[in-house]
Fold:
Amino acid sequence: MNTVQIDTGRLSEIGYDSCVASCGNFMVLDHTVMESHCNIEGLVVLPLKQAFDAYPHVREKLFFNVVPRDSSDTTLQAAEKEPVGYYIFVEPGVRIEEPLQAAFLFGETGSRQFIHNIIELGEGAELNVVNGCTTATHDRSGTHVGITETYLGKNAHLGYTMIHNWGHAMEVFPVGAVSVGEGARYISNYVGMTEVRKIATNPIAHVASGGSARFYSVIFSKGDSYFDTGARVILKGKDASGEIISRVVSEGGTVISRQLLSGEHAGTFGHMECSGLLLNENGVIHSIPELRGAHPDINLAHEAAVGKISREELSYLMTRGLNEEQARALIIRGFLDIKIEGLPEKVQSFMDEIISRSIEGSI
Structure:
């Protein structure tokens, strides 16, 4: 039995709150599933090991499929471990308004945590997942590897929000891949607002005809943090679309933003944008946008900018009665404000709250 004491405040900081209405809950501490339940007909939430027995196709067709076992040293190591994580399935035509809450906690200092999740949505199904990762207490150190394989049926919709609240001594390697079916929509939101030793992630979405994949990330780099993040969208079908938008604020450390859009068929459309705000001379922001066109009838574009807070903006706000600290916080909050079409109000509100709280604790 796991005897690690959990700081409940850290759970609420990643969106895992028993007082918030949800369609289901799933929580892992180190290598143990602590909670797994759902209360909506047409929704399945199970530990992955149980899903292997209850739904044989999960192991045979979904497990290490869209993420190949040999795609990296990290995935090879994970494939040797007993899988710990969730299987989420939404039956065809079932549309769920309340978000599903999931939490992954790291408690054993110096250890390596391997998580493997699989999400499957049937045709026309709809779901939103708020997935949070944190340490049981701030001072934990170690390595977290999280693999998430996602499969969206025709005209399905998934909103997937990942909130990271790691400690300064953690190294984190999320691995994600999504199969977006014909006419399906996938929205990914990533929020990283706390200091961390290293995060390296570059999820990929394969988008079928008429489907769309959108990746949004908000990062506030502090101390000696190292973020190597981004996304890849492969537009494999006719009229598929993709969007990658990144907002980065740095008061220290390094942030690398890698973005790839690839158009392979007629009518594909894609846009990427990386905007960075440097608060001082202690940070580095490195944007690496990449476009790949393999058909003459496509439209792919990118834009990137890195700069500082404008003295004119500060002065204007200060003439309106704000002190410099308040003015800086307001500018940063506005810079990080991304309103996402199709994101439920509850999830958007929580993202806004996390961002505001992090800014107030830093400025």
User: Anything to note?
Assistant: Residues 311-363 form one domain. The first helix runs from residue 8 to 13. Residues 51 and 87 are 6 Å apart (CA to CA).
